[in-house]
Backbone:
Protein backbone atom coordinates (compact mmCIF):
# COMPACT_ATOMS: atom_id res chain seq x y z
CA UNK A 1 0.00 0.00 0.00
CA UNK A 2 1.45 3.35 -0.99
CA UNK A 3 1.21 6.46 1.21
CA UNK A 4 -1.78 8.76 0.82
CA UNK A 5 -1.22 12.24 -0.65
CA UNK A 6 -1.82 13.79 2.82
CA UNK A 7 0.86 11.53 4.31
CA UNK A 8 3.30 12.68 1.65
CA UNK A 9 2.44 16.33 2.29
CA UNK A 10 2.81 15.85 6.07
CA UNK A 11 6.19 14.21 5.59
CA UNK A 12 7.38 17.09 3.39
CA UNK A 13 6.23 19.66 5.96
CA UNK A 14 7.96 17.81 8.82
CA UNK A 15 11.16 17.43 6.79
CA UNK A 16 11.20 21.15 5.95
CA UNK A 17 10.76 22.00 9.64
CA UNK A 18 13.56 19.62 10.66
CA UNK A 19 15.87 21.03 7.98
CA UNK A 20 15.27 24.58 9.29
CA UNK A 21 15.97 23.45 12.87
CA UNK A 22 19.21 21.74 11.81
CA UNK A 23 20.34 24.86 9.94
CA UNK A 24 19.60 27.05 12.99
CA UNK A 25 21.47 24.63 15.25
CA UNK A 26 24.52 24.56 12.97
CA UNK A 27 24.53 28.37 12.76
CA UNK A 28 24.36 28.62 16.55
CA UNK A 29 27.27 26.18 16.92
CA UNK A 30 29.36 28.10 14.42
CA UNK A 31 28.63 31.43 16.15
CA UNK A 32 29.33 30.15 19.66
CA UNK A 33 32.59 28.44 18.70
CA UNK A 34 33.77 31.47 16.69
CA UNK A 35 33.23 33.78 19.68
CA UNK A 36 34.00 31.59 22.70
CA UNK A 37 36.31 28.96 21.22
CA UNK A 38 36.38 25.19 20.89
CA UNK A 39 34.44 23.11 23.39
CA UNK A 40 31.55 25.50 23.99
CA UNK A 41 28.13 24.04 23.21
CA UNK A 42 25.00 26.09 22.49
CA UNK A 43 22.25 25.13 24.94
CA UNK A 44 19.47 27.57 24.09
CA UNK A 45 18.52 30.93 22.72
CA UNK A 46 16.44 33.90 23.78
CA UNK A 47 14.79 36.28 21.33
CA UNK A 48 14.05 39.90 22.11
CA UNK A 49 11.13 41.57 20.30
CA UNK A 50 9.95 45.16 20.51
CA UNK A 51 6.66 45.87 22.25
CA UNK A 52 5.29 47.47 19.07
CA UNK A 53 6.00 44.36 16.98
CA UNK A 54 4.54 42.18 19.70
CA UNK A 55 1.32 44.23 19.82
CA UNK A 56 0.92 44.11 16.03
CA UNK A 57 1.51 40.35 15.94
CA UNK A 58 -1.03 39.74 18.70
CA UNK A 59 -3.69 41.98 17.14
CA UNK A 60 -3.23 41.07 13.48
CA UNK A 61 -1.73 37.62 13.81
CA UNK A 62 1.49 36.60 12.18
CA UNK A 63 5.07 36.42 13.32
CA UNK A 64 6.87 38.85 15.57
CA UNK A 65 10.03 40.46 14.21
CA UNK A 66 13.01 39.49 16.35
CA UNK A 67 15.15 42.48 17.36
CA UNK A 68 18.05 40.47 18.79
CA UNK A 69 18.96 36.94 19.82
CA UNK A 70 21.14 35.79 22.72
CA UNK A 71 22.60 32.28 22.57
CA UNK A 72 23.38 30.37 25.77
CA UNK A 73 26.47 28.17 25.81
CA UNK A 74 28.17 25.87 28.32
CA UNK A 75 31.59 24.30 28.73
CA UNK A 76 32.62 22.21 31.73
CA UNK A 77 29.71 23.59 33.79
CA UNK A 78 30.54 27.21 32.99
CA UNK A 79 27.90 29.33 31.25
CA UNK A 80 28.27 32.19 28.78
CA UNK A 81 25.85 34.14 26.61
CA UNK A 82 26.70 35.54 23.18
CA UNK A 83 25.05 37.75 20.58
CA UNK A 84 26.02 39.68 17.48
CA UNK A 85 24.58 43.17 17.06
CA UNK A 86 25.47 45.27 14.02
CA UNK A 87 28.31 42.88 13.20
CA UNK A 88 29.90 43.17 16.66
CA UNK A 89 30.15 40.02 18.78
CA UNK A 90 29.41 40.35 22.47
CA UNK A 91 29.77 37.85 25.28
CA UNK A 92 28.26 38.03 28.73
CA UNK A 93 28.50 36.03 31.95
CA UNK A 94 24.76 36.19 32.66
CA UNK A 95 21.57 36.26 30.64
CA UNK A 96 20.37 39.28 32.62
CA UNK A 97 23.51 41.19 31.65
CA UNK A 98 23.06 40.39 27.95
CA UNK A 99 19.35 41.23 27.84
CA UNK A 100 19.98 44.45 29.77
CA UNK A 101 22.64 45.40 27.22
CA UNK A 102 20.26 44.77 24.31
CA UNK A 103 17.45 46.81 25.87
CA UNK A 104 19.73 49.88 25.85
CA UNK A 105 20.19 49.67 22.08
Residues:
Amino acid sequence: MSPAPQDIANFAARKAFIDRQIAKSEAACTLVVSILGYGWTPTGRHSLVSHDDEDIAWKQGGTMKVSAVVYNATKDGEKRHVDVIDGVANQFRSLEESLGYMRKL
Remarks:
- The chain has one domain: 5-103.
- The chain is about 50% helix and 30% strand.
- The CA atoms of residues 68 and 86 lie 10 Å apart.
